[in-house]
Amino acid sequence: MSNLMEVINQLYSTHSATREELKELILCNDKKVLDYLKKLAVKVRESVYGKDIYLRGLIEFTNYCKNDCYYCGIRKSNKNAIRYRLTKEEILDCCKEGYELGFRTFVLQGGEDSYYSCEKICDIVRSIKSSYPDCAVTLSIGEKERSEYQAYFDAGADRYLLRHETADETHYKKLHPPKMSLAHRKQCLYHLKEIGYQVGCGFMVGSPYQTVDHLVSDLLFIKELEPEMVGIGPFISHKDTPFANCENGTEELTVKLLSIIRLLLPNCLLPATTALGTIDPFGREHGIEAGGNVLMPNLSPTAVRKKYMLYDNKICTGDESAQCRQCTELRMEKIGYQVVTDRGDFKRS
Ligand code: SF4
């Protein structure tokens, strides 16, 4: 155990650890060690971001997708999914409501839907940026050509989220159809970095076939990429997918990994995700108390929320945006943190 305490101290001071050390830490169930890990993660988080919680207003604007990822509820083959697309006007209405509620970042998230051509996305981004010049726009719309990423960026997009899902090639193949590749996904992430986006990668915790070695590879890949954001959440099965009967990931392991990521990348923006709040009623609080500093309440119109079901039992699908905003604020106050009206950019030290 003392060895693991040293590993945590070393992570705290050098932000690095070996493959073996990370593996041991992931496997550790000793409460004292895990409490210490959490304590240092929170210390680092507070030294960079204080007690502030940044909000991202999530606008799920299309649930059409050309891909068929085996874990995803809106995969192309799911004939039970009721498909929808939001118009530019509907998206702008979400932003208007969000702005009034204090959001200064809008995340446009959707499946890989070719209906939204490069021009359409650029037009939407430009419209948001001209109406709300003090806000950041984040895109989360999958794998694209470098030239498209560049065009979105030139139109004003600030950030891009593209979870790598798993950094292990063999594992990647077990989660995705043959035409998708980890190499291409990584290539996209490097293109986004080169262009100048604040980039977010991430993975599911406890996804089918995942091993501890895979998780270590995820951590080492994140360290190598040095993204500005890291989104992780427990795997939660969806009834209409090939993984319907697979076991869900756990809150415990997700929270532990959040703390490790905070120590590896002290300045990163680290959300306590909706999936974490779905697996445990206080999952988001626990995520923040383990070193997280971002929450992503839903700004999508209530009428479509239930249709954007990436996994079963997703929380907050019946609430109005104002309710989500208020609930988030109260939950954070209760644990001693404050939601701020701020773009919440990555802080370089
Ligand atoms: S995970 Fe993303 S790319 Fe894969 S099917 Fe779902 S929405 Fe499409």
Attribute tags:
three-stranded parallel β-sheet, binds iron/sulfur cluster, TIM Barrel, globular, six-stranded parallel β-sheet, alpha/beta, about 350 residues, 14 helices, about 10% strand
Helix-strand blueprint:
Elements: H1 2-14, H2 19-27, H3 31-49, E1 52-55, E2 57-62, H4 88-100, E3 105-110, H5 118-131, E4 136-140, H6 146-155, E5 159-161, H7 169-175, H8 182-195, E6 198-205, H9 212-225, E7 229-234, H10 251-264, H11 274-279, H12 283-288, E8 294-295, H13 302-305, H14 321-334, E9 338-340
Iron/sulfur cluster binds next to loops.
Q: What structural class do the secondary elements suggest?
A: alpha/beta
Q: Give the N-to-C terminal Cα separation.
A: 32 Å
Shape descriptor: globular
Please tally the helical runs, counting DSSP H or I stretches of 4 or more residues.
14
Strand content: 5-15%
Task: Spell out which ligands are present.
Answer: iron/sulfur cluster
Low-pLDDT residue spans? none
Radius of gyration, taken over Cα atoms and rounded to an integer in Å: 19 Å
Report the average pLDDT across residues. Answer: 97
| Total tally of structural domains | 1
Note the main sheet: 6 strands, parallel
Give the name of the CATH architecture.
Alpha-Beta Barrel
CATH topology: TIM Barrel
CATH superfamily: Aldolase class I
Number of strands: 9
- Please write the CATH class name: Alpha Beta
Strand order across the biggest sheet? 2-3-4-5-6-7
Q: Helical content, roughly?
A: 40-55%
Order of SSEs, N→C? HHHEEHEHEHEHHEHEHHHEHHE
Nutshell version of this structure?
The chain is of the alpha/beta class. The chain has helices at residues 2-14, 19-27, 31-49, 88-100, 118-131, 146-155, 169-175, 182-195, 212-225, 251-264, 274-279, 283-288, 302-305, 321-334; strands at 52-55, 57-62, 105-110, 136-140, 159-161, 198-205, 229-234, 294-295, 338-340.
